[in-house]
UniProtKB/TrEMBL annotation:
Alphabetized SUPFAM superfamilies for the sequence: Ribonuclease H-like (SSF53098)
Protein name in UniProt: BED-type domain-containing protein
PANTHER family given in the database record: OS05G0256350 PROTEIN, OSJNBA0013A04.12 PROTEIN
Keyword Zinc: yes
Alphabetized Pfam families for the sequence: Dimer_Tnp_hAT, DUF659
Natural source organism: Kingdonia uniflora
Protein's UniProt keywords contain Zinc-finger: yes
GO MF, any single term: protein dimerization activity
Amino acid sequence: MSVEGSQGSTGRYRPTNSNDPGWDYGQPVDGNRDHVKCDFCGHVSKGGIKRLKQHLVKASYKGTMYKDVRKCDKVPQDVVDVLRSFMEGKQKITEEKQSKKDEMIRNVNVYGNDDDEVEEVMIQIPKKRKGPMDAFVAPIDVDFRPRAPNSNENKKALENIHGYIADFFYENNISFNCARSDSYSKMMQAIVQYNDPSTFKPPSYNDLRVKILKKKEETSNWVDNFKVHWETYGVTIMTDWWTDGKGRTLINFLVNCPKGTVFLKSIDGSAHIHDAELIYKMLKDVIEEVGEKNVIQICTDNASNYVLAGEWIMAESKIYWMPCAAHCINLMLGDVSKMHLVDETVKDAKKISLFIYNHKHVLHLMRKQTKGREIVRPAVTRFATTFLCLHSMYEKRQELRDMFHTVEWRNSKWPKHPIGKEIVKKVKSNTFWNNMHTCLKIMAPLVDVIRMVDTEEKPSMAYIYSAIEDCKLKVKTNLGDQNDDDRELWKKMERILDRRWSGMLQKPLHAAAHYLNPQYYYATLTSSDEMESNTKLKEGLLDCIAKLALDEEDESQILRDLIAYRTKAGRLGKRGAQACVKTIAPVEWWITFGSEVPALQRFAKRVLGLTSAASPCERIWSTFDNIHTKKRNCLEHDRMRDLAYIQYNRRLKKRYEERISGKEIDPIVLKSFDECAEWLVPDDARDDIVLGTDMTYGVLEDAEDGFDDPPLTRTSRTNTASHCSQEVASSSRSTTRHLQDSSDDDDYDVDANYGMGDGDDDGIDSRSDEDI
């Protein structure tokens, strides 16, 4: 433990803000406050200043002998008296605090204190305590035998129990999301099943700290289950960085193979996050820890420091650097969002959403029309959120239109209000909904690609090349070729897709994985010939073989084995093998049918088993929000590192178990509404100009009087949005309540071939803007 204190005028060390007289008679050894040397006899007490005082009071206090404490024979009696007086005063304060705590615990009675209903509750508090922290987690011996309660009493008792649990959440600022965790449910069930309340003892503060070591061992055993596969399949080192509320930059390192993803470690990179050379050194250390022979690629975002460090790694090793595919596709969506049609449509949709969610009466009407379903949907990124919110609003367009014909709406202030008139005009506009439909047709194929690369159900490297090509085709088909506007829109989209794919994302590994995926190579009678004639594809394949082959002999053998793959020789051409190309994963196909070409089989397994995204790095940042906080800054570095290791891997384990159990998870949908803030809380809405006037919304609303909602000042807007959407908006960093997620009520899987019908098919009239 490092020393934090000062040297007084006498040159003696004393901790900051400490009045403990023990420091007048002992000093830390080599700066370690846990090891204190006695000034009188030179004995070193290995238990801090408390153990030194026990040593100086001659190893006894009030007639009680301290165990395993050596007494000092040279300490003067006046020093003993001073220390005993201090210790007695401190003990008295501790006992007074404990007495208050005991009294509070005695008052706990979930069945109430009415003598007519329940017998007296007898609670005995053990006097013996291990330390001051045990006051907060004291064992309670309960001798409580009420008569059999009736149903009303049980109901009241359950409410009281929920109140105590809620108090625990509130007082400790615990996220309500924790109540959704499996471990929370297991904990409660375990407590209920314990059948001897008199012996029940909650874990103490020290119990929880010490048991971290045991939990780390259990977690390490789970991680070891994946390490045995690293050499066979090769791995991807995934890394990403994150800045916490205190400005520290934390860098995560995870390892992925086809069997699953594990968290390796987290490093405080505040001093060198922008330094490519130091990132390079960190990556080298991680590669050495994992084993260089096991590492196929490093996957990061596209920050210039990571790009440069990745290039240095590639130049000196057989390891590839790969940009995160999910990040690149998200950049494509960002480029699409800047297009004039999309930008204007999204702005109009946000105005409608903000109007609804910031006026309680209107929000109630909307929920009544949609049967409780929300029009705002959160996703992993802002651009994916934009798509889901547009899609959700488009799906509920008829309910939104109907809302403005209800009696409740007509009797409210809004039909005659300029703001209400503008919103009604937008919702009833055919052009608005047609433009939204076009936006969805453009964005849906890209969102499908994000879903594909972001899922952990199957390694995505084998599919990303084809997914991008299919995405281009679907966007072009969705837009059609009926007029110049459609053709011009497609040209813009094509430039966006090609710039990000060819200029940023596409790498040799993508080409090699596409070539070696039998689902595509054997798709048709001519597909293999088409691949063989694709120069860029073959160049990527040969580049990978040259880089990843074990040696020249292995490279030559892989090239010879390619002939068997191309000609369907031996087992590769058997009827069973060809029948399975579309029904089993590419890696499993090579394991099952590739034994006659072992060199190519090994190469294919290590390429096709790779991921193409570093998304798991970004998925669980809330873990580090809980660890790297001001309340935890007193944790020793090693303990904090262990806690991060345990928590992160436990969450990865949960996702792994959900995946192997067959549970369907949409990787882009979130339950937290952090990413929806711009759809829920206005930013500078008061400065916007009201349609058809030269007044701002702020001036207009301040001039209104007698409305049911207050003017939208910046503070009141935020508070109102938080209140009105308290069942909607929630965050792992907030104490706002959660809404029951509506994802079970809606199907948000959007076919990339998005609604290609005419006005009759999609429910939107193709006429110009007229009120319906």
